[in-house]
Design brief:
Strand content: 5-15%
CATH class of the largest domain: Alpha Beta
Order of helices and strands: HHHEEHEHEHEHEH
Helix content: 40-55%
Number of domains: 2
CATH architecture of the largest domain: 3-Layer(aba) Sandwich
Number of strands: 6
Largest sheet: 4 strands, parallel
Length: 198
């Protein structure tokens, strides 16, 4: 026996979420319909509202309700520094450190030729225009330390250096509070390579 079409449609819609397979989507659908209809309505309304009002900031490419987000409009940010991250979640983590007061640019992904994501799909011409606006003096590449993130950082570094910009990459190494004996060899090797004087 098949599911009612409205329930089947809901299950399929929930499957668009990352990491949600058919069984998880079905469990979520049943939970929302049976145990939390108010939550389901709130979720529906919030999704519709977000899709209707959110856009990409014209300066940093993060999500914003305005043409230029509050962070980019703030006179307290250092316009000479531009930190490039892959996703808005990465920007949020950088902000939580309270260690960086410059500007950002969010790529909304990384280069991944196997997935058909190249420079054109990431709209790197917008990053280039932002980085060469005359205010930026240094671009900090804060892409992830995955194969794709490293390839993206390398490509961006070459592209930006060719335009005469100073380019740096965030360091890798041991986590704060981490113990050497419980750290993988690759991380220890990178920490040794990126050591600094004390």
């Amino acid at each position: 026996m098949s599911l009612p079409s409205a329930l089947e449609e809901l299950v399929e819609a929930l499957r668009c979420l990352p990491g949600v397979g058919p069984k998880s989507a079905q469990r979520m659908a049943y939970h929302l319909l049976q145990r939390d209809q108010k939550g389901a309505l709130r979720l529906s309304h919030s999704l519709q509202h977000a899709v209707a009002v959110l856009r990409h900031c014209s300066r940093c490419n993060a999500f914003s309700e305005n043409e230029v987000c509050e962070r980019c409009a703030s006179p307290r940010r250092d316009a000479a520094l531009l930190c490039v991250v892959e996703m808005p979640a990465d920007l949020n983590m950088m902000e939580q450190t309270h260690a960086y007061r410059g500007m950002y640019y969010v790529l909304m992904g990384h280069l991944s030729p196997l997935d058909g994501i190249g420079p054109k799909e990431l709209h790197l011409e917008r990053l280039l225009a932002r980085a060469t606006d005359g205010a930026v003096q240094e671009v900090i590449l804060a892409t992830n330390f995955t194969n794709e993130g490293e390839a993206t950082a390398h490509y961006l570094g070459e592209m930006l250096r060719a335009r005469g910009l100073k380019v740096s990459r965030i360091a890798r190494g041991l986590p704060v509070g981490g113990e050497i004996e419980h750290t993988d060899a690759g991380t220890i090797a990178q920490a040794l390579l990126e050591r600094r004087p004390v």
